Amino acid sequence: MILKVTALCVAVSMICSAIRVQRPELATAISLAAGLTALALAFGAAGDASGWMEALKRLLATEGDLTSTVVKGAGIAIVAELGSQLCMDAGESALAGRVSLASRVAMLGLCAPMLAELASLLGVSLPW
Questions:
Q1: How far apart are CA 11 and CA 118, in angstroms?
Q2: Which of 4, 123, 126, 127 sits between 20 and 30 A of 22, alpha carbons compared?
Q3: Distance of alpha carbon 107 from alpha carbon 128, whole angstroms
Q4: What pLDDT does 45 receive?
Q5: Residues 6 or more apart from 45 whose CB is under 8 A from it?
Q6: Residues 40-60: pLDDT tens digits?
Q7: Residue 33 CB partners (closer than 8 Å, separation 6+)
Q8: Across residues 99-119, what is the average pLDDT?
Q9: Is residue 37's pLDDT more than 80?
Q10: Domain boundaries, the chain
Q11: pTM above 0.70, yes or no
């Protein structure tokens, strides 16, 4: 799957580079179509990952709190990376940086309960 996505994106980027000089609007449309196709291919492979997560959850035999946190973290990372790359493609590197920063803050917030529980296990009281 990754080879297909990579080959598609490299080929389309070459085509778009050649077309962009004469028809920038056509290059944008082609790039968008290729991006959506690559995203569809990636989501097709996500089914394998969700099956793996279910198997891991059964193997660990936890109540699912950790598993749901990992899945939420992966979702934050994927959405933030996609948003950041879209901003970079649009030439807005400052906005891409803000998306990355927001994702880090969201992940820190997601991990805060785990850090508090770890601190309580170690006998350390946290100021919050």
A1: 48
A2: 4
A3: 17
A4: 66
A5: 1
A6: 887 776 666 667 667 766 766
A7: none
A8: 87
A9: yes
A10: 1-46, 62-128
A11: no
